[in-house]
Design brief:
Distance between the termini: 22 Å
Largest sheet: 6 strands, parallel
CATH topology of the largest domain: glycerate kinase, domain 1
Number of strands: 15
Structural class: alpha/beta
CATH superfamily of the largest domain: MOFRL domain
Shape: globular
Number of domains: 2
Mean pLDDT: 93
Radius of gyration: 23 Å
CATH class of the largest domain: Alpha Beta
């Protein structure tokens, strides 16, 4: 007699913990400590950063600026290699577990700036402008830096106006590169302007990237590198999303009067003695997730096609891609498994999806994406996890969420799912089901991971 068909509930129970283990493994193995161990070393006063060597004793002063969600972790990892001889400024969205001697700390705002963001910018600019050609500046940059250090280029833009502008940009549905193009042109610190402030000092930037690999100058709005975006780009983006009428007058008037100032480009003298190295990125997190999935017995496929897509379009694409992979596998191996039991597949997708927020619920793009998937896989033997590597999804305490073919039923039916989606209020539903992914702030930020599993 043929073996009995597998119990779907049992398969669901197997895939749910597998998804969590793969995500957790990716977080652990794509850590800042492991990246610094590979790429940064210091021996007898010679600091090696990737392919570059810096003889620290040859500089009159070495100053460190660490900005972003990973600012504390990066500063601590650097000092662990150089010893406690550094000085600098750290600006992050969370309080440090411990403070390094010689560093000033700012508990700044994210996703919108706060007063500490402004104070951090003033302190950094003042310190950088005091350096000379015999100085070395080490910039440690990670995601979230755009709001954590900020000073409007135009003094007419108040902090409330700045916050309003950030909110309109974040909720517009624009991808991060477009959002940051506008931020750069409004700021005294972004788009290469910190590099200008540090000139003529020697500069090196170490990047933990939460932006697409092709646009490294979008990380933290590119404060230390030439800006590839232009005023014309900003004007096109504002028109594309209808932002001019949404911006406060102090910002909107800069566009109406064509008063924006262009950011420094690659021919600016500030970049003659500047270098940039990416030591961690979303691709590395994907690679680590792929290793964990393969070790768990999954056939692994990576598809980043939907980076920066609308979450609904991305959900439809990835669910269909997973089903196509499962169907192909069954057709190629008709005797390898029963019809209800395909070999395990793990479809991985990195980057971010976009969400145009119309209501003020609790959640974020990962939970919104996951909930959109729940409706599409109802009753099917599929499991999907979507979460941010920083441990924070939108305005919720979760990193993301997990769904499978039972989610809709357990949530109370399609009406309950669709109501939460329409209100952009996915987190309360996932918390009630116990399907939210809670890691706490990870001290890292490598964009998002989406795992789609099928047996």
């Amino acid at each position: 007699m043929p073996d009995p068909a597998p119990d779907p509930a049992l398969q669901f129970r197997r895939m749910r913990p597998a998804a969590r283990v793969i995500f957790t493994s990716a977080l652990q193995n794509a850590s800042i400590e492991s990246a610094f161990s590979r790429h940064i070393h210091c021996h007898r006063g010679v600091l090696r950063i990737c392919d570059d060597l810096y003889h620290l004793n040859s500089y009159s002063r070495t100053f460190v600026v660490s900005i972003g969600k990973a600012a504390h972790t990066m500063a601590a990892a650097l000092e662990a290699r150089t010893g406690p001889h550094l000085e600098g400024i750290v600006a992050s969205s969370v309080a440090p577990a411990a403070q390094l001697h010689g560093f000033r700390y700012f508990h700044a705002g994210h996703p919108t700036p706060n007063a500490e963001s402004i104070h951090a910018a003033h302190a950094i600019l003042k310190s950088l402008r005091s350096l000379d050609a015999s100085s070395l500046v080490i910039f440690l940059l990670s995601g979230g830096g755009s709001s954590l250090v900020e000073k409007p280029l135009d003094d007419e833009i108040s902090l409330p106006d700045l916050i309003s502008t950030y909110q309109k940009l974040v909720h517009s549905g624009a991808p991060i590169a477009e959002i940051n193009a506008i931020r750069k042109h409004l700021s005294a610190v972004k788009g290469g302007r910190l590099a200008q402030a540090a000139y003529p000092a020697q500069q090196v930037s170490i990047l933990v990237s939460d932006v697409p690999d092709a646009t490294p100058d979008a990380l933290a709005s590119g404060p230390t590198m030439p800006d590839s975006t232009t005023i014309h780009d900003c004007e096109s983006i504002v028109a594309k999303y209808g932002l001019l009428e949404q911006f406060p007058p102090s910002v909107a008037d800069l566009f109406r009067e064509r008063a924006l100032e262009e950011t420094p480009k690659s021919d600016d003298p500030a970049f003659v003695r500047a270098r940039w190295w990416t030591v961690l990125s979303n691709q590395i997190a994907l690679d680590e997730a792929a290793k964990a999935a393969a070790a768990a017995g999954f056939e692994v496929v990576i598809d980043n096609s939907c980076d920066d897509w609308d979450y609904e379009k991305a959900a439809a694409y990835l669910v269909n891609r997973l089903r196509d992979l499962r169907a192909r596998q069954r057709n190629e191996n008709p005797s390898a498994a029963l019809p209800d039991e395909p070999k395990p597949i793990c479809l991985l997708s990195g980057g971010e999806v976009t969400v145009t927020v119309r209501h003020g619920g609790t959640g974020g793009r990962n939970q919104q994406f996951a909930l959109a998937c729940a409706e599409k896989i109802a009753g099917d033997n599929l499991t999907i996890l979507s979460a941010g590597t920083d441990g924070i999804d939108g305005n919720s305490p979760a990193a993301g969420a997990l769904v499978d073919g039972t989610t809709v039923v357990r949530a109370g039916g399609l009406d309950a799912v669709r109501e939460a989606l329409s209100r952009f209020d996915a987190h309360p539903l996932f918390k009630r089901l116990g399907d939210d992914i809670v890691t706490g702030p990870t001290g890292n930020n490598l964009r998002d991971l989406r795992l789609l599993l099928a047996y």
